[in-house]
Design a protein that fits this description.
With 225 residues, the chain is of the alpha/beta class. The chain is 45% helix and 14% strand. It is built from seven helices and seven strands. The chain is globular and about 50 Å long.
Amino acid sequence: MIVVTGASRGLGRAIAERLVERGHDVTGLARQMSEAQFPLIPCNVGDQLDVMAARRRIAAMGKPVTGVVACAGVASMNLALTTPGSTVQHIIQTNLIGTIFTCQAFAPLVIRAGGGAIVTFSTIAVALGLKGESVYAASKAGVEAFTRIFAREVSAHGVRVNCIAPGPIPTDLTRGVSADSIADVVTRQVIQVQFTPGAVSDLVELLLDPRASSLAGVVLPVGGA
């Protein structure tokens, strides 16, 4: 089984659906429930009790967990000086702490299954230093650092941990971003293309596959930075 957080909409939903289409057994976690072609468990990844409750429900299914995709995230594009404190806390709690809670909860299940892979999510805004994304990028920079070190901590147990850093993928997170702003970011990528959720989903599937056994602790910027 592969566990995908943030699976009710956006990029998480696209990833979960692509994995199901490719024949994978997927269970999603999400704060908001919706109709899906895979089981969805209500879970706020920023709440450790919620995450541990979801872990118990998944463990009770009796299926080996061989992959985890920590995709749940929030964004708020704003200058640091004008970002409300509550927004700062929400972004850090969901993106960074939520990723840590997810890995703490589900990595032991992957170890119990005999090994597998975990994929976390950053953003190309970290590498490009995008103005107006300081708090969001800070939360994701923390995810990158956590991924690199956590990969070292669990590699001996047969668990590979890698991170994907997408550019402006067309999802709910970028719906309010102007076309000019998106174009500006895309022109700063090595490959100057706005990639689709499908392209990111393919990369996730690659990192989950045993054929990617040589990759661990790597941050992969979609489009290049």
